[in-house]
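stuck on this:

***
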Amino acid sequence: MEIEGLDYNTQREKLLLPEYGREVQSMVDYAMTLTDRAERQRCANSIVAIMKRMFPQPAETEGYDRKLWDHLALMSGFKLDIDYPYDMAEATTIASKPEPMAYPMKRIPVRHYGNMMFEVFEKLKTMEKGREYDELVRLAANQMKRDLVLWGHGSTDDEKVASDLAGFTDGRVQLDLSTFKFDRVEVKEQERRRGKKR
């Protein structure tokens, strides 16, 4: 349905800096059509003053004026021919998009233990036995037990943890379940936390 004089923002040109709105963009577009340089300069000063009123900042905010002038240059596509109070070379870096980050695509045998636990398993394979080794084994076994409870993977018994720990450390870590004491894991507390995540 086409109604004369009625258009939607989705049908209009996309704004480069939508936080200032379409009216400020229209003012910038108007300033670019002015032929007199002095008039363009006055118009640009007025636009920056309006932008400052739209988003007031404390007077001591460092670099705020520069940021507004950079935004004015961006909205004009760097085509507004005026005397900028700052060097506009840095404004081009604002417009550039960062390179996409590579997502780590490590494959782990079971997801419920997570990548960090597999780093611990690797460390346990080569670590010298001693007090620090024993403490890391204790922490790893208790974390594995909590993970099993949290993810609800059927068996959360101590034998499963001992078996997994031995398997993922290539048999180096053998838990003696007759002497090893797991921390107490509250199943209700773990389920409550899982419910919050959803």
Observations:
- The radius of gyration is 31 Å.
- The mean pLDDT is 84.
